[in-house]
Amino acid sequence: MAASLHFNSVRTTPCAKGFRRSSFSIKSTRLEFSSSVSSATGFLCARIERACRRVTKINCERGTLSVIEKDETANGSPDGNFGQLTCVMKFGGSSVASAERMREVADLILSFPEERPIIVLSAMGKTTNKLLQAGEKAVSCGVSHASEIDELSFIKDLHFKTADELGVERSVISAHLDELEQLLKGIAMMKELTLRTKDYLVSFGECMSTRIFTAYMNKIGAKARQYDAFEIGFITTDDFTNADILEATYPAVAKRLHGDWMSDPAIPVVTGFLGKGWKSCAVTTLGRGGSDLTATTIGKALGLREIQVWKDVDGVLTCDPNIYSRAKPVPYLTFDEAAELAYFGAQVLHPQSMRPAREGDIPVRVKNSYNPKAPGTLITKSRDMSEAVLTSIVLKRNVTMLDIVSTRMLGQFGFLAKVFSIFEDLGISVDVVATSEVSISLTLDPSKLWSRELIQQASELDHVVEELEKIAVVNLLQHRSIISLIGNVQRSSLILEKVFNVLRTNKVNVQMISQGASKVNISLIVNDSEAEQCVRSLHSTFFERGRVSELDSEENASTTTTTTTTSPIPATN
Ligand SMILES: Nc1ncnc2c1ncn2[C@@H]1O[C@H](COP(=O)(O)OP(=O)(O)O)[C@@H](O)[C@H]1O
Ligand SMILES: N[C@@H](CC(=O)OP(=O)(O)O)C(=O)O
């Protein structure tokens, strides 16, 4: 093969600042180039990688090979001063689900030669779910069967196959796979899967995806360095499966990543989702989807220009595309809107992820790794709201609602205080609240209950009701949904007029309504069974039948409700 290929430099031109592109025409003496394009590409790329340390991208197309490399003469920095890190690029599980996807992600990163990014990766595809399933099975399968758990085989096959297809050594992950098997045997032996063990178990996903990807980046000549978040200063509370990032994280992470970059520049590849408990020193996780939070934490820590979260959708959409396929991308959002949307159940962003971005005032861009040309969603501190009415509709299912009516043993002030102190004592979060003088309707945050065992959940609910019944008549209503309308609440009259028209047409009774203090959210509680249809009808009214504007209605912003809550509409069972 070596003797059969020749390539001559055609031209070298500057491309993005600090980089240059060299193009070569390729001739094959023995082979028609087009018939052996992949082997020729592989061969040439390997030779170029060995020859040039600064290569960031190699493209081979129709007999022309172009190489993008760092041009150390262009910015007068032959001493290897590469400037500061510029942005975070986070890729979720769907973006790194296979070898092919990892290759595309590497290409995508290198197609922005002007950036000096920090990469945050989630576990490959559905690895986190598979790890949790493997753990559940290990509890009851017996030590001798732990090695045969289907999910373990799936995870091993996926990671070895990916390493093979990318041409990286299996050894980058084989020790982790051995340790994972040992851990499952340990769980089988103990017949117990604690929250702490669960976090350690799922951490294998991110630890392995980042190691494979880093090895691949190095193989193609883009110098990269892998980091486990729990080793570089991600300090969290010890709330296993749902830990919070502590302030000490920011300086520690900045010092480590910045220090390494300045002394020996290499693209940092960091595990998403993981941290280290400050008391236990054990591996913690930031809650499902927590890699978004890892990315924004790094963005704030290093004061970067932008945080990019790359997903499998064209940005934040007007509603969940799994509920309604005609959902459309939302071009701009504020941090408040995005936080509210995430908190009320839009899976696309982690509920806490906007906090560091807002604090650091760093724009977050949500992009599609399957469709990089799509503009995506830009999330910033403020945006032009003059045209905005409704931005997005979010559905949170399977919510528990409580109607609590005072027996008048306490005055109004004492009544509200007592009710909330019961929730505080039991450590249960409340989502949506509406009050009148002697009654409160509220929903319980399902994510806080879900982190507990089902049996524990049921007994906790009984306990809440028991405590509340000492001062009130309590009605527990399950299988409810919260429909959250994220948008310009300055136009609440217009929004509500349209909403109630839709609900009336669909013969749906709203059981509670609340306008959040954040001024970007109106929440409606309806039965689970009616919720999806409501979302679809609302979507078609607000986003498909022409733009809803203030002019559509005689109502206008002057009638805006300014109170944070409205009276509950009595619920039916
Ligand atoms: N409003 C919404 N906008 C965009 N995606 C949404 C929305 N609500 C739910 N989703 C779901 O969120 C998914 C993306 O989030 P996630 O799976 O956490 O991404 P990743 O794993 O790539 O970080 C989409 O595939 C989509 O099904
Ligand atoms: N792998 C973790 C963390 C994460 O953020 O994943 P993703 O980016 O694929 O949502 C999870 O599945 O929860």
From TrEMBL:
Pathway: Amino-acid biosynthesis; L-methionine biosynthesis via de novo pathway; L-homoserine from L-aspartate: step 1/3; Amino-acid biosynthesis; L-threonine biosynthesis; L-threonine from L-aspartate: step 1/5; Amino-acid biosynthesis; L-lysine biosynthesis via DAP pathway; (S)-tetrahydrodipicolinate from L-aspartate: step 1/4
Record-listed E.C. numbers: 2.7.2.4
Record GO terms (molecular function): aspartate kinase activity; ATP binding
Catalytic activity: L-aspartate + ATP = 4-phospho-L-aspartate + ADP
Function: Involved in the first step of essential amino acids lysine, threonine, methionine and isoleucine synthesis via the aspartate-family pathway.
Name used for this protein in its record: aspartate kinase
Annotated InterPro entries: AceGlu_kinase-like_sf, ACT-like_dom_sf, ACT_Aspartokinase, ACT_dom, AK-LysC-like, AK1_ACT_1, Asp/Glu/Uridylate_kinase, Asp_kinase
Pfam family, one: ACT_9
Database matches in NCBIfam families: asp_kinases (TIGR00657)
Sequence similarity: Belongs to the aspartokinase family.
Gene3D superfamilies according to UniProt: 3.30.70.260, Acetylglutamate kinase-like, Aspartokinase, catalytic domain
Cell compartment(s), UniProt: Plastid, Chloroplast
Chief subcellular location: plastid
Keyword presence, Ribonucleoprotein: no
Keyword Repeat recorded: yes
Record PANTHER family: ASPARTATE KINASE, ASPARTOKINASE
GO annotations of cellular component type: chloroplast stroma; cytosol
Region (Disordered): 549-573
